[in-house]
Design a protein that fits this description.
With about 80 residues, the protein is mostly beta strands. The chain has no helices and 8 strands. The model has no long low-confidence stretch (mean pLDDT about 95).
């Protein structure tokens, strides 16, 4: 198992609309994200495994407008 609270997904939305993003970890859908909502801070440990992992971010956005929708992935502590 990967220790919890070490690898994180964090979103930052600067007034955007219409963004839709799917986050895949090790080939499986881990999270679907939409702009216009509250900030998300999510522990990625449940989707990770020891050793190398693959992460893919796929945009399904249709006519996005407004500011930028950021998706950050990284290590840290709470």
């Amino acid at each position: 198992l990967v220790p919890p609270a070490r690898w994180w997904l964090v979103t930052e939305d600067n007034g955007s609309t219409g963004h839709a993003i799917d986050l895949y970890v090790n080939g499986g859908l881990a999270k679907s994200l939409r702009s216009g909502g509250e900030q998300l801070i999510e522990d990625l440990a449940p989707w990770l495994r020891p050793g190398p992992n693959s992460v893919r971010i796929r945009s399904n956005s249709a006519t996005p407008t407004g500011g930028t929708f950021y998706v950050y992935l990284g290590s840290g502590s709470n």
